[in-house]
Structures are given as structure tokens and as C-alpha cells.
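Sample 3 of the quickstart, ligand zinc ion:
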Amino acid sequence: MKTLFNRSGLHVQMFVVFLLSFSLTAASIHCASFLGLNLFTDEEDVALGLQLDEEIRANPDQYPVLRSHPHVQAYVEEIGHRILQSQHIQKRDIYPYQFEIIHDDSTINAFCTPGGFIYIYTGLMHFLDTEAALAGVIGHEIAHAERRHSTKRISGYFGTQLLLAVVLGQEPGIVKEIAGNLFAGLGFLANSRKDEREADTFSMRYLQDTEYYPGAIRFFFDKILEEQNRHGGTLERLLSTHPLPQDRVEHVEKTAIAQNFPEPTEENLFIKRYQEFKKTLP
Ligand SMILES: [Zn+2]
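Result:
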């Protein structure tokens, strides 16, 4: 997802360790940066995801993982597992797929590490109105893992010399930049518009195999636009650096027509169930 808030800033050390353990030849790195290849294997996606997951859990100040309300995690897990049953999911046996809640109401965000460690902020859950919209966002995050967008970008960005400099510790600024940007949707590691669009496409594909309205990510976009109009203030400022491109909205609208999506109703949006759930949020 294009994030609205940047609260990332993982430890630099971990990436150095990871990159050091990354047995790549200079030649393959060189090619990857030109060909847009992913130099990571699926197993390395999981290994990196595990390291990031550990890092997140070790930083409760920045990532206060919700422990006090286990039903919230269970609710999100249930939605996630419905989506993971889709015929279009290819890595359910390879990626561990875990769902965690970050207790931070001021952050309207969700992110996914490589290998399928998905984090949903309580701020996002408060922000949304329907279970289907949450499912749409979760589907979008799952798509980032399935399509391996993060490790593709990491592979593509590092030319030979830069990667060597990072590995040798000569470019700590660059490593810091990766750490800060991985989940933030900013800078050179930002999800490209192409990746965002692809994640939206796959979210819709996955949801077509569920009980949810397939184009439900649209309701997340609608909320952003609504909020933007209502209080131009804070949200406007955040959106000015992370704009919601109109083409994402149009893409969902066009897909809904082309794929003959059903009408969105209570039966596929689960508004009542979601409103009841929201009352139980911390
Ligand atoms: Zn995204």
C-alpha cells in the first residue's frame, strides 16, 4: 500500500548482516540491475522476512504489537486465511504468512515483509468501515509478498559497486535508507505505481475467490478521498507526499465493469459485522 505515514526505521545492522550473508556474484548483481530480476530465492525472501519480523518485535516503542486483545489478531487472521485459499495464491506452502496487529491508532497503514509477515495498524482498522475493505487491503499486502515486490526492488537497485560498498560498510547512509524505506512507500524503494497497481489487481483476483466484494480496496481509496476533502489539514499534508493516484481508483472501477463484479451489498461487504468488531478494538 502507498503508506500515509512513515514510521519506519529499522536497525541498520540487520541489513548489513543479511547482505553479508547474501552469496551473490558481482556479475549476477550487475545483470539484475538492468534486467529487473529478483536475485533473492523464495527461501531468502522468507529469511529476510524473519529478520525483519524479529526486528519489529524487538522494537515495541516503534512497533507496539497488540498483545492485550487476541481476538483482534484472530479476526484479521481469519480474513487473511480466507484470502490465502484463493486459487491465485502461489506461495502459501512456501511463505509462512503471519498476521500481526500494531497498536497505533494514529497510523493508517499496513505493510508486508518479504515472505509474508503482514502487519496491520489499529489506525487502519479504525479508519475503514467494512470488513471487505480490510480484506481488500490485506489482499493487496499479500500480493506484495506473492509478487515479491520488495526483494525485486532491492535486487534492482543495487549495482555491483553500491552493493559491495554496503557490504563493506562504506555506505552506511544507503543501508539506513533501505531500512527506513522498506515499509514506508518512500524514496527509491517505494512501491512503484506499477507494483501498487499489480497489488491492487491481485487483491481483486484473490477476493473474487472469497465471500468479499472483489473490488473492496476501492472503499479504502474512497475513505482517503473523503477524509482529504473533509479535513484538508493533516491528511492533506501526508497525501501531498504520498498522493493517491486517481488511476488506482479508475483501475478498480474499470476492472469491476470488465470482470462483472457483483453489486457491493451488506452480503459481501460485512458492514454490520465490522462495526461490531470495531467496538471491540482497543
Ligand atoms: Zn502497496
